[in-house]
């Protein structure tokens, strides 16, 4: 983080602007809207500066910059078209440990002006640290269209109640739950309809007659790792939750989107290292929900595809705990797409099977014959450890040893790796390239298309499909 975003109260604070042209004028307008007391020095001034001086909004000094003009100022802006003057302002301000902004010269900026979305008292600031101002402006335009105008009046209303709520409801968590209820109530709709008196009365009633917060569990699929594959509903519930119970498969980038003050509990399982037994996770969800918490059970991929989401919901049912399920992009679909492998294709595969590489608790084997049919794609979750066994059983059941395979490590993430080869090479490729979890095995003729359809990240680390499948046999 190159700059720390701060909101500074500038009401009646002294600020110096060096420059009197159009660029200085834009900065001055922003500072005046924040209540700053402006001093502007320049040999010439735009007409609006002169008007502001007549209105008592700015003091103009007709002349050139001198270091003593910095005395007593909180901020200084260098906004001339003379690089030497701007550099002199920067040097003098830096020598005094003052915050200085040099327009269009990011290395000479101790602070920067962000793009601002104003829904006062709600303010949103966006900055690219001066590297891509047009991109920052486009982001601001998109957010402007998304954020309703009633946010300002709503913030003003709840601001008037803040001290009352603090006096009547003790504890940060309890107060936050109260405000969550307010923002999910008809108070918001009244403000949106400009029925401010009704909204105020409704909020007063909620404060005098508080309702106990019922716990709820959100079972949410986080997808294979790319945060842009999250659904809108998943993101909304991640932001609402009091507690997030998550797995190792949830990427750090997705965890960054969790509400900052939410409690985070990792119950992840890794191959050979089941850190939290499933029954303990089930009980944890129950205990948190019965304590009135909104719990987000965040799982990699989709919670109902090898995610044990069904088991966890079954554990909630005897306790009458409310729940929601948010599907996610399962690893098979997400990782294969990012690897450039269509799971079905009219010329190569008319069906697809999703299976797990973990053995069943009773030790019984899956139906290897049904999994060994040609013109079918087989996607194996959690198959690295049993890769040699999977390879042997599929070949023994009739799948050609030359069937194309792909191992996708960290699919959809920046560090994605793809290793391709044949079924006969499966176990040796995993050892040779030291592949680790999370990884997905894709077995089938569609893998031969990967060389042409690959689009994300680095090229695969092996390439054995320059010849046709029939030639490899």
Automatic annotation (TrEMBL):
Leader sequence residues: none
MF annotations from Gene Ontology: NAD binding; precorrin-2 dehydrogenase activity; sirohydrochlorin ferrochelatase activity; uroporphyrin-III C-methyltransferase activity
Statement: the UniProt record of this protein carries the keyword ATP-binding: no
PANTHER family: SIROHEME SYNTHASE, SIROHEME SYNTHASE-RELATED
Region (Precorrin-2 dehydrogenase / sirohydrochlorin ferrochelatase): 1-203
Pfam family, any one: CysG_dimeriser
Gene expressing this chain: cysG
Location of the active site: 247 (proton acceptor), 269 (proton donor)
Protein name per Swiss-Prot or TrEMBL: Siroheme synthase
Residue span(s) of domain Sirohaem synthase dimerisation: 150-207
Enzyme Commission number(s) of this protein: 2.1.1.107, 1.3.1.76, 4.99.1.4
Catalysed reaction equations from the record: uroporphyrinogen III + 2 S-adenosyl-L-methionine = precorrin-2 + 2 S-adenosyl-L-homocysteine + H(+); siroheme + 2 H(+) = sirohydrochlorin + Fe(2+); precorrin-2 + NAD(+) = sirohydrochlorin + NADH + 2 H(+)
Tetrapyrrole methylase domain segment(s): 217-427
Keyword list, A-Z: Cobalamin biosynthesis, Lyase, Methyltransferase, Multifunctional enzyme, NAD, Oxidoreductase, Phosphoprotein, Porphyrin biosynthesis, S-adenosyl-L-methionine, Transferase
Xref: CDD domains: SUMT
Annotated HAMAP family: Siroheme_synth (MF_01646)
Binding site for NAD(+): 22-23, 43-44
């Amino acid at each position: 983080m190159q700059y720390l975003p701060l909101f500074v109260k500038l009401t009646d604070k002294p600020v110096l602007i060096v420059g009197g042209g159009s660029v200085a004028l834009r900065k001055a307008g922003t500072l005046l809207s924040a209540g700053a007391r402006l001093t502007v020095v320049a040999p010439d001034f735009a007409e609006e500066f002169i008007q502001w001086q007549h209105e008592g909004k700015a003091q103009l000094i007709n002349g050139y910059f001198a270091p003593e003009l910095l005395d007593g100022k909180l901020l200084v802006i260098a906004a001339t078209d003379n690089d030497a003057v701007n550099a002199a302002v920067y040097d003098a301000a830096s020598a005094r440990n003052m915050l200085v902004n040099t327009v269009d010269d990011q290395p000479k900026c101790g602070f920067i002006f962000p793009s601002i979305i104003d829904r006062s008292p709600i303010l949103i600031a966006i900055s690219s640290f001066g590297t891509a101002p047009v991109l920052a402006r486009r982001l601001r335009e998109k957010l402007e269209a998304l954020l309703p105008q009633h946010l300002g009046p709503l913030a003003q209303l709840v601001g008037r109640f803040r001290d009352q709520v603090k006096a009547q409801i003790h504890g940060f968590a309890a107060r936050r739950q109260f405000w969550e209820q307010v923002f999910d109530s008809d108070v918001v709709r009244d403000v949106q309809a400009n029925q401010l008196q009704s909204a105020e009365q409704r909020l007063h009633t909620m404060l005098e007659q508080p309702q106990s917060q019922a716990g709820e569990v959100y079972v949410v699929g986080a997808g294979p790792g790319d945060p842009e594959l999250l659904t809108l509903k998943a993101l909304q519930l991640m932001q609402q939750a009091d507690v997030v119970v998550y797995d190792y498969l949830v990427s750090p980038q997705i965890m960054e989107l969790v509400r900052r003050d939410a409690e985070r509990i990792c119950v992840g399982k890794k191959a050979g290292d089941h850190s939290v037994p499933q029954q303990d996770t089930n009980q944890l969800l129950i205990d948190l929900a019965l304590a009135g918490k909104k719990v987000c059970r965040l799982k990699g991929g989709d919670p109902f595809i090898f995610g044990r989401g069904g088991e966890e919901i079954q554990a909630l049912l005897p306790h009458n705990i409310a729940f929601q399920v948010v599907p996610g992009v399962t690893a098979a679909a997400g990782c294969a797409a990012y690897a450039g492998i269509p799971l079905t294709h009219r010329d190569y595969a008319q069906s697809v099977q999703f299976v797990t590489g973990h053995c069943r608790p009773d030790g019984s084997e899956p139906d290897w014959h049904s999994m060994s049919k040609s013109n079918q794609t087989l996607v194996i979750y959690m198959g690295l450890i049993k890769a040699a066994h999977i390879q042997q059983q599929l070949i023994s059941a009739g799948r050609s040893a030359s069937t194309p395979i792909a191992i996708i490590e960290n699919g959809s993430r920046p560090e994605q790796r793809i290793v391709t080869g044949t079924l006969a090479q499966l176990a040796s490729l995993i050892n040779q390239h030291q592949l680790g979890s999370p990884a997905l095995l894709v077995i089938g003729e569609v893998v031969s298309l990967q060389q042409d359809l690959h689009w994300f990240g680095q090229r695969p680390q092996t390439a054995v499909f320059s010849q046709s499948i029939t030639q490899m046999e």
